[in-house]
Specification:
By secondary structure, this protein is mainly α. The chain is built from five helices and no strands. It is globular, with a radius of gyration of 16 Å. The two termini are 21 Å apart.
Length: 135
């Protein structure tokens, strides 16, 4: 019984993170990554790195939702969020929102949920069945 609850928890974790983050990816597919490209080049980095957003916000969520290479998907999410923190949100690390929460709640949520996926893996309720080293 414990294993079933654990696997259901992993499914909820994967689906929640994957679906919510995929909305950001769809926006980038529709509108492009020009905004990110500008931030990246302003830091002296090559513009092509902006396309990494597609890895973290389209590919990773699809991997998470399906439960294939799930730990890799979590790693891509964590990397994506670390880049977002360093390029955009560094000055906001200690800020609070108007409602009293952390100003970076959403980014923190994605970062730490990605870390949980890396640690927990896919579970049984996934395409991979949680059997591979990256699942």
């Amino acid at each position: 019984m414990q294993s079933t609850r654990d696997d259901l928890g992993k499914l909820v974790l994967r689906l929640t993170l994957g679906i919510l983050l995929l909305f950001h990816g769809v926006s980038k597919v529709i509108n492009g990554v020009g905004f990110i490209e500008g931030m990246i080049t302003s830091h002296g980095l090559p513009a092509f790195l902006a396309y990494g957003a597609y890895l973290g916000e389209v590919l990773a969520p699809v991997l998470l939702i399906l439960g294939v290479l799930t730990r890799l998907g979590g790693l891509l999410v964590v990397g994506n969020m670390l880049v977002a923190f360093s390029l955009v949100h560094l000055s906001q690390l200690g800020d609070l929102s108007k409602t009293g929460g952390w100003a970076l709640e959403l980014q923190g949520f994605y970062l730490f949920m990605g870390l949980c996926v890396i640690l927990f893996g896919a579970g049984r309720y996934s395409v991979s069945g949680g059997r591979g080293a990256w699942d």
